[in-house]
Amino acid sequence: MSGNPILTVGTVNQKTTEAEVFVGGQFLLTQGIKAELAKLEQVAQNFENDPLTLSLLSAYLKRWYAGRLNGLDSIPVLLDQRPHGRALRRVLAAFQLKLAGASDMTLLYLLSLSDQAVPQLPMKLVFRSTFVERWLSRRDDYIRFLAPLGRLNEDHWHWVIENLRRLHLLAPPIPSHHDLLLVPEPIRGYLREELRLKNPVAYKQGCLDMEKLFRETVVQLYAPEPEIEEKPKPILWEMSELDTAQQQVLALRCSLASLRQHSHDLHQHLLSMRTANLVLSTQENNLQSA
């Protein structure tokens, strides 16, 4: 599957300036590999003193051999005719042997088919949909290839991702986009070719599913810029408008004062009427008593 990558993420900076010479033996030591510095320098030279390769080698030795160099005997010796990058291919071949048949390796192969960061949820939906469809119609090499992923529950899925990141086979989380997954370029190039050669059916259908995923899903690596709310412009009054407004306020105050006075007079009038009614009632009662 071709295309320009949206971004390149690596576990180690592979470009060094003349002033920053990469010291492979010291790097292995800082990564927790247990041996004398002179021996580590020799190991680094044997693996081309390449930062990414040594980073993967360190993760491999720590995971399965407690950081000891006796794990070097388990790394295959390649006899191909391509000397460039052979050290990296050796380490990746060792990972393939350790992870053979595991869901980790299946996920890594699928992610290697994309040069773009892959969103997790759409990926699960697309590949599981294809798995169910082909399971009902035909059971081929692609079904057997996807089977390890089909057994993953949600917690195990996240554990597999974190495991691949700890092994440096998967790029670190992308800031603000932790749901996106990306295999570093040298690793995905190797795995993509391995899948194409060893399982052509899975390679072909995997590429089709990945194309379908990005055809139906828009991946945004940058959050949209927040909309700036325009503040309301202050209202500027003309002097004549202020005079008119002041006159209206004064007129309103006068009207309120008149209303209060009218209410007070009405209240007093009602009280006087009540008092007069009481006096008349008292006089009538006195006359009736006499």
From TrEMBL:
Protein name: Uncharacterized protein
Species of origin: Thiothrix eikelboomii
Taxonomic placement: Bacteria, Pseudomonadati, Pseudomonadota, Gammaproteobacteria, Thiotrichales
